[in-house]
Every structure is written in structure tokens, then in C-alpha cells.
Known about the structure:
2 copies of one chain form a homodimer. The first copy, chain A, is an alpha/beta fold. Chain A has a single domain (3-271), classed as Aldolase class I (TIM Barrel, Alpha-Beta Barrel), CATH 3.20.20. Chain A contains 12 helices and 10 strands. In chain A, a hairpin with a 3-residue loop joins strand 6 and strand 7. In chain A, helix 2 runs parallel beside helix 12 (250-271). The first copy, chain A, is globular. The first copy, chain A, starts with a helix and ends in an 8-residue tail after the last helix. At the A-B interface, helix 3, helix 4, strand 3, helix 5 and helix 6 of A face helix 3, helix 4, strand 3, helix 5 and helix 6 of B.
Amino acid sequence: MSPFVEKIRQACQTCQSLLCVGLDPDPTLLPVPDVSRFNRAIIEATAESACAYKPNLAFYEALGPTGLSALKQTIAHIRQTAPEALIIGDAKRGDIGPSARAYAKAMFEVWGFDAITVNAWGGADSVEPFLENESRGVFVWCRGSNPGSGDFQDLETSGESTAPLYQQMALACSRWNTRGNVGLVVGATVPEQLAAVRRLCPAMPLLVPGVGAQGGELKSAVRAAVDPVGRLALINSSRGIIYASPGANYAAAAAAAARQLRDSINATLAEDGQGWPSS
Amino acid sequence: MSPFVEKIRQACQTCQSLLCVGLDPDPTLLPVPDVSRFNRAIIEATAESACAYKPNLAFYEALGPTGLSALKQTIAHIRQTAPEALIIGDAKRGDIGPSARAYAKAMFEVWGFDAITVNAWGGADSVEPFLENESRGVFVWCRGSNPGSGDFQDLETSGESTAPLYQQMALACSRWNTRGNVGLVVGATVPEQLAAVRRLCPAMPLLVPGVGAQGGELKSAVRAAVDPVGRLALINSSRGIIYASPGANYAAAAAAAARQLRDSINATLAEDGQGWPSS
């Protein structure tokens, strides 16, 4: 097992959870103005339920230097509060040659993320620089959860084989995965595509955005996303957890929402005989 | 003419140039350690020859807070030294919904770029938030100059029509261009694709990376890139100009390289009867 996959397994095992919490500080929704303080409270409230945290860099960049400083403090706080948790920088970076190498340095050395999301529109040489350190990994944006993701990702293509573009992306990532540190982003809102990607890449980690705290499709998304033994899928929820309450009780509400989502995911795994061993 | 296209035309007219200078501070190549000082010298040396500057954010992010501070100073210095020049943030951002809106805020409001490069893998709703302010624009990454860009961008696709993926991207951008503030990035290293995109989008601005300070293909790239009257193509050179000399004379060398490239581009325009009116 690669060091990256081992890190994911360990993070999930520690809290018996596949739940990833997205830390997306939107000023129009924040119940308190201080992002660092808000994130700190959310992290402390959810640490027992989350195997991973996923700050989306867009929200921090939009706040300027204050936001970047809050991101730095947030990363430090996750390391302190949940040392086993995976920290995924949702950056969707992608560029060519020297620029991609510079982004890899920014993401893994400057920020210190365990993994980042990558946009592979630029092909093999836009991804390779992110894979050099086998203990750090990427989740390549394969099939999004948004309506526009169908615009290109679902186009039928004829390369070596005929397939929708998102499947060509999954197959290419599979070929590039020589160090075991490539995963894929596939939305929970497109269960057919999610299942197709899992069939093509049975052993790769999947990062799955687009589930709410409730929602009847959670069960089918979990089943489509997990590997054959019910693991290696990180089911992400952002707003459903961190903005579970707009009031002063936001941390307690986040704790409850995270616990509930983790338990719902685990109930599905248990139904399928893939529950966590009792500790 | 849209405010964005008018701004490009004005920037080009002012210095009678289609040259964009890429400001990519690579620590392994910098002749002086201070990025802000280096960029300042480069900007002063090239202001008479360049209609646009294109800092690639990867290089600044890789340097941490110092790099971001240098980028801020660089933008201010361009505004002061070359007030008509277009400042293009080469960010290749792309994300969905609220995240794309946050990136638009970061790029146009926090940094204050006139235009940015965008990665449209996520489709219409990943681009739309960048287009809301018609005086700011985007250059969508259509067909790259790197070898890997062929991996997906050249795949044959069958959507409404059968075409290579980069052409589907060009056509989609053309549809999204309701405010006249969408352009495309197409590499000079792929003259056939460049010509095809120009045929599909005769009136859209193109940003063309991949030309060196010399190179026999410059002439054909310029001819393929410009609009029917010899305008609306920004021909970018980064390393060929800013690292023209590794020594203390780097600014003078950059000035000479920029002048030479601008003049070569203009010679091609003049040969085709599309030269600048004498002032």
C-alpha cells in the first residue's frame, strides 16, 4: 500500500469515519466575523467525526491577507486538534511545466497540505509535478457535482477508446498513478458517473463532494463511491455542517450534523457488511 | 466594442505592440534575490515595448507571504509605470458556484487584475462568475503550448458537432461571451490549432504563450493569432525576456529582448499591410 493510501486509511480508521468536512468561510454566511476563530470552533466540534478537512482556497484568497493568515492558523489548528486527519487543500490548481512545479511547492511546502485537488486540463505534465513526493497526493477533478460539469466532462470522446471525457480522465489518472498517490474528485450528485469511475478505478481514493447532511441519495452515493471493501471514499460536506446553525450555537450544531452524517455513512457500510471493527 | 476589448486595443495602440511580458520569478533563475526589485527593473525596462504584463501566480505563491507581497508591489508598479498596460493574472482558476465567485473576488477585487486566465473544465457555471464585471475579462485556457495539452484537448468529441475538444471549448466560450469579455489562451507551439481557433472566433482576444525571443515560427504564430485586421492577439514571452541575461545587466538585456520581439511582431504585421499608423 502506498504511503498516501496508508495515510488515508489510518485517518479513516482513527475516527471510524469517511467524512470530510469542507471549511469554506463565506462572509455572507459566517455566524462570527473571525474566520480563524470560526474554523477553530468547527474543528474542535467535528474532530471526533471527521477523517479529513478540506479548506477551499478560493474563500481564503477572497479575504486577502487576513484570509491567508486564517488559513495558516486553521491548518495549524487541525494538526494540533486532529493530528491523524488528512488536510486537503481544495485548490484545483493546474498549469504547465515550471508553473505546475511552483504550485506543487506552494501547496505542499508553503501550505503543507497532505493532498490537494488538481485540474488536469493541461494533461500529464500538468499533473506530474504534484506526484513527486509519494507521501503527498492529489485528487484530480474528474466529474464535478455542478450542472456545468456536464458541458465538457460528459462529452463522448474517441481516443484509444470511445468514452465520455470524464472516463478518459479517470483512465489517464490511473496510468499516471505509479506512486499510488492519485485520487479522483467525483460528485455525489451524479451517481451513475460515480459508479462508472469506481468500476474503472477500483483501488483509487475518491473525494466525493455534493452530499447534504440529509438526502436520500447519500446511501447510493456511498455505495457507488467506496472500494470493494467499503473504504477509500472521502464523503465531503461543507455548508451542511459548518453552517448547520446561523446562530451562536453554530459549533454544537456542526458537531451534531457531522456526527449524524458520519453515522449515516457508517450505517450504510454496516448494512453491506463493511462496518468498522468494534474497538 | 466592449469595454474589455477597448481596453486591450488601447493598451496595444499606446505602445504599438502586441507583446505581453510574463513575470514569472523563478528563484533558480533570478539574477537578484528580491522579486519586487527584479520585477520593478524589468517593468521599467520593458514598459515602452509591452502592452501587457502577465504575472503567473504559481511563482508568487511558491514564495509564501514574501512572494504575495512582491506581487502586490509589482501590480502597483505596473500601474504607475505603464498605466495603459493590461495586467493579466495568470491564475488558471476554475471552480464551481460559490467557490468560483470567491475566486473572481480574489482576482479582480483583492488583486485588481484587469484580466485573468481561467480553467473551464467545470463548464459554464465555473466561468460565469468571472464575467459579471464587463470591464474585466478572462482568457480561458483553450489549447496549451505544453506537450500534455494534447492529452485531452485534442481528443475528438461528439457534442452538438464533432470536433476536437479544444474547439468545443472555443465554441462554448464564444457562446458565453455575451459581454465581450472572454478571450482564449492558445499556444504558439501549435499553429494549426491556433489558426483553427482564430477561424472559429474571429473577433475574440487571444493570449498566445510559447514564443521565444527568436524562433522561425514567430511569424506564422502571429499570422495565425491576429484578428482579420492584425490585432487582438497578445503574444507572450516570459523567460526569453526576463531572463535574457543572468548577469547584472538583466534589465538592459530584457529591454533589448522585448524591443526585438515587439519589432519582429510588428514587422510581420507591416508585411501584411497591418502595421501601426505612424504617430
